[in-house]
């Protein structure tokens, strides 16, 4: 797969298919899960439940130097780790690190997009969470969801949702359109998927 990854200058990368890179996901895999939903450089984005920043780094790679990211997580340690990695790999990208719970009110600018990667499956009341997320998006803003493609949870992934369930939930929560972006194998729960949904 060929992808355009913005940086100081526009560059071309050729990525192998998921099956060619083994079972451990790396930065190229994270970029691939997002890239068909992040179609322009720049903009103001947030990563909700960003953890140690794997998808924050992928988002930085895609939106480039003209973009701004708000990285939201409850763990200060995780945010410090990702800040060090971001400064080492993408020092020119503007990132604001916020130790907050994205279910609670936050002061954020209107967002062009939100990434939620392996974060929604911790939320029992998904409709409430999605209402909060949608409130931060500009009209026609995007929510990019990365989740395990299963409806059977466990201790570590308590409330997962397959893509079929996500389609119905997104419509019920007022998103105007939802599209599957890609799938990727997972040794843990079989498969990841990424999808993009638009606010009306």
Topology:
Blueprint: E1 2-5, E2 11-14, H1 27-35, E3 43-48, H2 54-63, E4 67-73, H3 76-89, E5 94-99, E6 111-117, H4 126-136, E7 137-148, H5 163-172, E8 177-186, E9 190-198
Parallel strand pairs: 3-4, 3-6, 4-5, 6-7
Antiparallel strand pairs: 1-2, 7-9, 8-9
Helix pairs in contact: 1-2, 2-3
Structure description:
- The chain has 200 residues and is of the alpha/beta class.
- It has one domain: Vaccinia Virus protein VP39 (Rossmann fold).
- It is 27% helix and 32% strand.
- It contains 5 helices and 9 strands.
- The protein has helices at residues 27-35, 54-63, 76-89, 126-136, 163-172, and strands spanning 2-5, 11-14, 43-48, 67-73, 94-99, 111-117, 137-148, 177-186, 190-198.
- The strands form 2 sheets. The chain has a 7-stranded mixed sheet with strand order 5-4-3-6-7-9-8. Strands 1-2 form a two-stranded antiparallel sheet.
- α2 links the parallel β3 (43-48) and β4 (67-73).
- α1 (27-35) packs across α2 (54-63) and α2 (54-63) packs parallel to α3.
- The longest helix is centred in the middle third of the chain and has 14 residues, at 76-89.
- The protein starts with a strand and ends with a strand.
